[in-house]
């Protein structure tokens, strides 16, 4: 179960109320949600009717709803057990990829190649 809260302008709130009644109330729908895994498209459905239309500030409206998620975003099996350091310290892999592993010949000589092309074919 996920509790979602939205803060909207008046036109957004009017559209949300119509959408919640006509579209989301019909069943499962896909929306982008933030989880510890980052932003993911998740299939959800409303478990409660959106509570809202509460004035928040001078011109904003607050809505809250409890949703059920069909699939909870998790790492694939084995990552948490075998390789937790890659989850907790991803910068190690980034460092190895960018600083420790040798570059291919194109990357090694890219500046010289670029300079030679520009000397041979100068721009007008």
Question: Radius of gyration over alpha carbons?
Answer: 25 Å
Distance between the first and last residues' Cα:
63 Å
Q: What structural class do the secondary elements suggest?
A: alpha+beta
Total beta strands: 5
Estimate the helix proportion, in percent.
Answer: 25-40%
> What low-confidence regions span 5 or more consecutive residues with pLDDT below 50?
none
- H/E element order: EHEEEEHHHHH
Mean pLDDT: 81
**Overall structural domain count:** 2
Number of H- or I-type helical stretches: 6
The main sheet comes to: 5 strands, antiparallel
Strand content: 25-35%
Descriptive overview:
It is a single chain. The mean pLDDT is 81. The protein has six helices and five strands; from the N terminus they run βαββββααααα. It is of the alpha+beta class and 124 residues long.
Brief characterization of the structure:
The protein is of the alpha+beta class and 124 residues long.
Topology diagram in text:
Blueprint: E1 2-8, H1 10-22, E2 29-35, E3 38-46, E4 51-56, E5 60-69, H2 79-82, H3 84-88, H4 90-100, H5 105-108, H6 110-120
Antiparallel strand pairs: 1-5, 2-3, 3-5, 4-5
Attribute tags:
single chain; 124 residues; alpha+beta; 6 helices; 39% helix
């Amino acid at each position: 179960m996920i509790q979602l809260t939205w803060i909207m302008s008046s036109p957004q709130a009017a559209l949300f109320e119509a959408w919640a009644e006509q579209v989301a109330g019909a069943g499962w729908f896909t929306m982008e949600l933030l989880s510890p895994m980052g932003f993911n498209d998740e299939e959800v459905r409303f478990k409660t009717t959106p509570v809202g239309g509460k004035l928040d500030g001078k011109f904003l409206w607050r809505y809250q709803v409890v949703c059920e998620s069909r699939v909870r975003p998790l790492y694939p099996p084995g990552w948490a057990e075998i390789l937790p350091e890659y989850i907790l310290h991803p910068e190690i892999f980034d460092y190895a990829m960018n600083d420790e592993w040798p570059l291919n010949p194109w990357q090694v000589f890219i500046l010289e190649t670029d300079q030679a092309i520009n000397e041979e074919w100068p721009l007008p």
